[in-house]
C-alpha cells in the first residue's frame, strides 16, 4: 500500500506542470480521435515516436494524425521531450491544411525550433531531455499562433478551410533521423 502511494506521489513530482489555455475566452474541451501513421523507418509505441534510420531521402514518419476540423478557433497543447537525436530537421508538430502542410514546427540538432515554411526561428533550447510546452492556436480564416512554454513566438495568416493537427516525428525534405521523441499531456480546446 505504502509503495503504491509513493509511486503515485513520484509521478506527480515528475509530471510537467498542468497549464490551461494560453489565450483568454470561453474555451471548450475537444477530444478528437486520431490515427497512427508509421512509414519508412518510423515507429510509434504509445506516446513515443521514433525514426530509427539516418536516411536523407524517402518518406520517414511516425505520427498521430488527429481528426479534421473547419471553422472556429482551435487550440492544441502538448509537451514534447526529445529522448535521443542523432539527426536534424525533424518536424515534431504540424497544423495541416487542405492544400498541404500549412505549419510545421521542426527541430534542428542543437535544439533550434523553426517554422519549416520559411525557416523562421521560433525558439531555442529544445535539447535532449528537456520538456518543451507547445500551444498552437488556429483561428481559421485569420491567424495561426504558436506559443513555446507559454510565450507567443510565431504568428502567420490562416486561410479559410479544413485543418488537422499532427504530432510525432517526420523527416523534412532537408532532414534525417534518427530521433526518439515523447509527447505528453496533449489537450485540445475550441471556441
Summarize it.
This protein has 191 residues and is mainly beta. It has one helix and 16 strands.
Which structural traits does this protein have?
16 strands, eight-stranded antiparallel beta sheet, Jelly Rolls, 7% helix, 1 helix, single chain, mainly beta
Write the layout of secondary structure elements.
Layout: H1 2-14, E1 28-29, E2 34-39, E3 42-45, E4 48-51, E5 61-66, E6 69-70, E7 73-85, E8 88-97, E9 100-107, E10 113-115, E11 121-123, E12 131-139, E13 143-148, E14 151-157, E15 162-176, E16 179-190
Antiparallel strand pairs: 1-16, 2-5, 3-4, 4-16, 5-15, 6-15, 7-12, 7-16, 8-9, 8-15, 9-10, 10-11, 12-13, 13-14
Fold and architecture overview:
The protein is mostly beta strands and 191 residues long. It has one domain: Jelly Rolls (Sandwich). Strands 1, 3, 4, 7, 12, 13, 14 and 16 form an 8-stranded antiparallel beta sheet that branches. Strands 2, 5, 6, 8, 9, 10, 11 and 15 form an 8-stranded antiparallel beta sheet that branches. A hairpin with a 2-residue loop joins β3 and β4. The termini are far apart.
List the uncertain runs. 4-18
Total number of β-strand segments? 16
Overall SS class: mainly beta
Distance between the termini: 43 Å
Which architecture does the CATH hierarchy give at level 2?
Sandwich
What is the CATH topology descriptor? Answer: Jelly Rolls
Largest sheet descriptor:
8 strands, antiparallel
Tell me the domain tally: 1
What's the CATH first level? Mainly Beta
Count of separate DSSP helical elements: 1
Indicate the percent of residues in helices: under 10%
From the alpha carbons, calculate the radius of gyration and give it in angstroms. 17 Å
Describe the global form.
globular
- Taken in chain order, the helices and strands follow as HEEEEEEEEEEEEEEEE
Instruction: State mean pLDDT (0 to 100 scale).
Output: 90
How much of the sequence is in beta strands? over 45%
Amino acid at each position: 500500500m505504502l509503495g503504491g502511494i509513493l509511486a503515485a506521489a513520484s509521478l506527480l513530482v515528475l509530471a510537467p506542470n498542468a497549464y490551461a489555455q494560453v489565450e483568454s475566452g470561453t474555451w471548450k474541451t475537444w477530444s478528437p480521435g486520431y490515427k497512427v501513421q508509421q512509414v519508412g523507418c518510423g515507429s510509434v509505441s504509445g506516446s513515443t515516436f521514433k525514426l530509427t534510420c539516418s536516411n536523407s531521402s524517402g518518406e520517414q514518419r511516425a505520427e498521430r494524425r488527429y481528426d479534421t476540423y473547419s471553422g472556429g478557433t482551435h487550440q492544441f497543447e502538448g509537451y514534447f521531450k526529445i529522448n535521443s537525436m542523432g539527426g536534424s530537421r525533424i518536424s515534431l508538430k504540424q497544423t495541416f491544411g487542405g492544400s498541404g502542410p500549412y505549419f510545421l514546427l521542426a527541430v534542428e540538432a542543437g535544439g533550434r525550433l523553426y517554422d519549416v515554411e520559411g525557416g523562421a526561428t521560433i525558439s531555442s533550447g529544445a535539447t535532449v531531455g528537456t520538456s518543451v510546452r507547445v500551444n498552437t492556436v488556429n483561428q481559421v480564416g485569420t491567424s495561426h499562433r504558436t506559443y513555446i512554454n507559454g510565450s507567443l513566438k510565431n504568428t502567420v495568416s490562416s486561410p479559410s478551410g479544413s485543418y488537422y493537427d499532427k504530432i510525432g516525428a517526420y523527416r523534412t525534405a532537408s532532414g534525417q533521423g534518427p530521433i526518439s521523441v515523447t509527447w505528453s499531456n496533449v489537450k485540445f480546446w475550441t471556441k
